[in-house]
UniProtKB/TrEMBL annotation:
GO terms for molecular function: DNA-binding transcription factor activity, RNA polymerase II-specific; RNA polymerase II cis-regulatory region sequence-specific DNA binding; zinc ion binding. This is Transcription factor, fungi. The lineage of its organism: Eukaryota, Fungi, Dikarya, Ascomycota, Pezizomycotina. It comes from the Eukaryota. It is found in: Nucleus. Residues 181-191 have a biased composition (Basic and acidic residues). Keywords: Metal-binding, Nucleus, Repeat, Zinc, Zinc-finger. Residues 25-55, 143-191, 338-363 are annotated as: Disordered.
Length: 780
């Protein structure tokens, strides 16, 4: 049975100072060495693996088991199909060419025999292991092997079953790591996360039955406004006529209900901060209803109405905040020592009825101020989302709104401990969890702004002391009875964000003894991305120009990312289906983990120009601006592998199907990630082509050949170009691959998009593909 291979850096955690390895680019060059624009050192054409990154007392070479170290015994490359795709490098192969048509890596990428078959196991991203060796270990079992595995039992699985390896073909322990056994919120894990247990077991064990049926879809329609609710909303709008834009008119009841449905069916699953089982429009207030309807209109492709409602909602929230600030200033003035009564006679320049009514409401509801503030915060968060990803003309508004959100987030208490989940009353727990989730959504939106626009996030990791959010089933419990029943089988995690993030940064597993929720995994990957952002922006200009981060930091973050993925795999809610009843948060988190791997190896943030919303500027900024990429190494290989896997997902579903259907349900986070995948794959392939052109295929490391073969297989499966009549020039073939991958990414953006930013990214990727095609045509 396979055993988990742990790096030395996992054992006691990593302190950056303990592994103070200099930036590889700062190592003095030896005679005959030169550095190209990609950051790769050259010595007579040979690109050295990362084992050359050394310092006194520390070397990576004893631990990096790449195929370069396995020897080059043969002068020819033999590639038995579907068994050993890559072969070994030859020393004297002047006429050697790459065997493009002999390789098939889709079983490696799409292994349905293991849990989470669309997610590559965390061990694949351990730079101590060779991709070639790992891919051979994770073979798809033969049909008779699957049948044997199924007889093991539905509620249990062996490690070999989880790997898709027949027990009669066990590998030796030293061959590689094993997948972590999936752990769930409940007492009895289900191996495949989908199939029901036999009926007898369901009857005998109600906890298993509960585990399988789930409670992810409350049978209610919170978006439907009743006539009385709409009448109350209309009356409020009439009273606020002086505040709202003169051109604003409240949409009809059915239109508002349609927009609210768009919000709940579209946006809310990606950022679930409202408690839908207890949701009532009458409890939200006019400001929040309009904010939700504005975003919901976008999910119904009625963008013009969405912007109209957005403008009204923002004006109304700003007025509420101004009223609140005015009341605070008024109270401060009343506490002055020389205060007498005359200033009472000076009022605001508005109708007395409106002024008195709203001030009385403020006084009567002072006890509920935190709830009112929470509703204003929720409205601002939704408006900030719309402005961030909407038209260029409102992008500036998103930055201004983020400042307001940051003030409220701090006031409501993101930096204070919240007592965790130990609350006996369901009603009190719902109120506390909604507050917690609202603050988490604000934190996530700040980080997404930082990712997209290369701005410092408004809330830093060290400010956040909240407990991790609960699981979706508990959050969606429709009543106190169901909630108490859920508590019998789910132990809430008592850690707060700081504790869990620190464990990750030390390389420790965080899913033991209890797996955390998909929402918790989501906010933790945001925390790791923020660490990378500040590492990038605190390095010297020299380090930024090479794309390399300190090796100790890269190792610590890679260890943290593998620990995070182990937690993702152990979470019952994790799925790659955005329409799954478990919710899309697990799917969205996978886009962010890819982005983390990319940004560990490439300084893309300053060059993306997304705030311009100009596809030409964005495309040329990535192609001609040449964001710095770290040197070729096993670390960069893992980032490239993430990009390949991201591309294989729409290929597996079908590019046209994905473009026309799935993109409606994918979060814009995938658009942000895919843009950087396009960039990194192109940069890496162009550098590989340059190396082949100068020194031949034999100078590539075996893992790099493996990656090339995987890209070719994905392109071949997509069937977007004719690959059979390629020229014998391998360098041109690799450049052709770069153009094909960009074109394939562009095809995935061919459908409709909710927000403008995804449309702009799609147009930018199309321009990148056009540029690469034209360069290929001009070189022939």
């Amino acid at each position: 049975m396979l055993t988990r291979h742990r790096r030395l850096s996992h054992t006691d955690g990593i302190e950056y100072s303990d592994l103070a390895v200099n930036n590889p680019s700062s190592i003095a060059k030896r005679d005959g060495e030169s550095c190209n624009s990609f950051g790769t050192r050259e010595l007579d054409g040979t690109q050295e693996p990362s084992s050359t990154i050394t310092e006194d007392g520390f070397s990576l070479s004893p631990h990096l088991h790449t195929l370069d170290e396995l020897g080059t015994q043969n002068g020819t490359i033999a590639f038995p199909p579907e068994v050993d795709v890559m072969g070994t490098a030859a020393e004297n192969t002047a006429s050697q060419t790459f065997p493009w048509n002999e390789n098939d890596n889709l079983d490696f990428l799409w292994n349905d025999s293991r849990p989470f078959s669309e997610v590559l196991p965390a061990s694949f991203f351990d730079t101590n292991l060779s991709l070639v060796d790992i891919s051979q270990q994770y073979q798809v079992p033969l049909p008779e092997q699957r049948q044997s595995s199924e007889r093991v039992g539905h509620g249990q699985q062996s490690t070999n079953d989880s790997l898709g390896i027949n027990s009669g073909h066990e590998l030796q322990a030293q061959a590689g790591p094993s997948l972590p056994e999936p752990r769930h919120f409940f007492t009895e894990p289900n191996a495949d996360h989908e199939n029901h247990l036999p009926a007898a077991e369901e009857e005998d064990d109600p906890s298993q039955n509960r585990h399988l049926k789930g409670n992810f879809a409350p049978s209610i329609s919170p978006w439907k406004l009743t006539p009385s609710e709409y009448a109350a909303l209309s009356n409020d709008i009439k009273e606020l006529a002086l505040v709202l834009p003169s051109s604003f008119s409240l949409p009809s009841r059915h239109t508002l209900s349609r927009f609210l449905e768009g919000f709940f069916r579209g946006y809310h699953d990606h950022m679930p901060f409202l408690h839908t089982p207890s949701f009532s429009p009458s409890s939200l207030g006019t400001e929040l209803i309009l904010s939700l309807a504005a975003v919901g209109a976008f999910y119904r492709f009625e963008h013009a109405k969405g912007y109209m409602i957005y403008h009204a909602a923002r004006k109304l929230i700003n007025w509420r905040l101004d009223q609140r600030d005015g009341l605070v200033i008024s109270n401060l003035a009343k506490t002055s020592p020389g205060y007498t009564g005359p200033s009472n006679m000076r009022g605001h320049p508005q109708s007395s009825a409106t002024s008195n009514g709203h001030q009385a409401a403020h006084c009567d509801s002072s006890r509920k101020t935190p709830k009112l503030l929470l509703r204003l915060l929720q409205g601002l968060i939704v408006l900030m989302t719309l402005a961030s990803w909407g038209d260029r003309s409102v992008v500036g508004n998103s930055i201004a709104i983020s400042g307001q959100v940051a003030v409220l987030v701090r006031e409501i208490g993101i930096s204070t401990t919240d007592g965790g989940h130990d609350i006996p009353s369901w009603e009190e727990w719902v109120e506390q969890e909604e507050r917690r989730r609202t603050l988490w959504v604000a934190y996530a939106q700040f980080n997404l702004q930082s990712i997209a626009f290369n701005l410092p996030p408004m809330i830093l990791n060290q400010e956040v002391l909240l407990s991790l959010p609960s699981c979706g089933e508990e959050w969606n419990s429709p009543n106190s009875k169901e909630w108490r029943h859920m508590r019998k089988f789910h132990t809430p995690d008592s850690r707060n964000f700081q504790q869990a993030l620190e464990q990750l940064l030390q390389g420790h597993q965080i899913h033991e003894p209890v797996a955390i929720s998909a929402f918790a995994n989501y906010v933790l990957i945001h925390g790791l991305l923020q660490e990378i952002f500040f590492a990038r922006n605190t390095t010297s200009l020299t380090e930024q120009s090479t794309g390399s981060l300190p090796m100790s930091f890269v190792q610590a973050l890679e260890s943290a990312l593998r620990a995070w993925q182990s937690s993702w795999e152990a979470t019952y809610e994790s799925t790659l289906d955005p329409l799954s009843p478990r919710g899309p948060m697990g799917f969205n988190a996978t886009a962010l983990v890819r982005l983390a791997y990319i940004r560990l190896n490439a300084n893309t943030g300053p060059h993306r120009q997304l705030s311009t919303r100009n596809p030409d500027e964005i495309a040329h900024g990535l192609i001609d601006g040449r964001p710095a990429v770290s040197e070729r190494s096993p670390f960069l290989d893992r980032a490239v592998l993430q990009c390949i896997h991201a591309l294989s997902i729409p290929v597996r579903s079908g590019i046209q199907f994905t473009a026309r259907t799935q993109m409606l349900n994918w979060s814009m986070q995938h658009s942000l990630c895919n843009l950087e995948c396009v960039f990194l794959l192109n940069q890496w392939l162009q550098e590989i082509a340059r190396c082949i052109e100068l020194f031949g295929v034999q100078k590539l490391r075996d893992d790099e050949r493996k990656l090339l073969s995987m890209i070719y297989t994905v392109i071949r499966e997509a069937d977007i170009t004719e690959l059979s009549d390629w020229a014998n020039d391998d360098a041109d073939a690799v450049r052709h691959l770069a153009a094909c991958t960009a074109r394939l990414w562009a095809e995935t953006f061919g459908g409709f998009h909710i927000f403008d930013i995804s449309q702009v990214i799609g147009e930018s990727v199309t321009i990148i593909a056009d540029i690469l095609d034209s360069r290929m045509a001009s070189s022939t």
